[in-house]
Design a protein that fits this description.
The chain is mainly alpha-helical. The chain has helices at residues 9-15, 21-27, 31-50, 63-70, 77-84, 87-107, 111-128, 140-154, 161-176. It is elongated and about 60 Å long.
Length: 177
């Protein structure tokens, strides 16, 4: 007597219109990354805005002292010099940028644009503040830059305002036909 192994178990499930756990995992693969980056950047922005020591041009923990301390070790000292022309304004710009990027990413509104903003913030911080990290993987800004790239490419196709707006536009287009 010959015993065979049935090989069509997954295909019959798919033919019935169902989705298995692998399909669902693939479908929502970027959601944990989106939530992590969104919450982290919201927290980073709020932390800067509520830290009275940070939003000063000088003193312990200030944006001014931080920028002056990394100037000579950064990859692009001219970028640091630009920030040092108005360190408090730069601090507010970074904080509000992080907040906008975090909110946009978390709720999925203009997600690709928000992710691009997050990538640019991470890139600028990597080239200035964490450039001197040795070895390079001790600096977290490079890892954040790489984490933003999948969201720049894919956006937030599910559980997002972008998806809701896209579905609404599609519905309106079908209504006009």
């Amino acid at each position: 007597m010959t015993h065979g192994m049935r090989m069509d178990t997954r295909s019959s499930y798919r033919e019935s219109g169902g989705r298995d756990w692998r399909d669902a995992a693939t479908h929502y693969a970027l959601l944990p990354l989106r939530v992590f980056l969104g919450v982290t950047f919201i927290y980073a922005g709020l932390d800067k805005l509520t830290n009275s020591a940070f939003m000063k041009s000088g003193g312990a923990g200030s944006i001014g002292d931080t920028m002056r301390s990394v100037r000579d070790s950064s990859a692009i000292p001219a970028l640091v010099d630009l920030a040092l022309k108005n360190p408090v304004g730069f601090g507010y710009g970074i904080a509000l940028g992080e907040l906008a990027v975090g909110i946009g990413t978390l709720i999925g509104l203009l997600t690709r644009l928000a992710a691009l903003g997050g990538a640019l913030i991470s890139l600028s911080l990597w080239l200035t503040v964490s450039w001197a990290s040795d070895p390079y993987y001790y600096g977290n800004d490079l890892a954040y830059l790489m984490a933003w790239l999948p969201l720049v490419l894919a956006g937030a196709p599910y559980l997002s305002l972008d998806a809701a707006l896209r579905a609404r536009r599609r519905q309106r287009t079908e209504d006009f036909r």
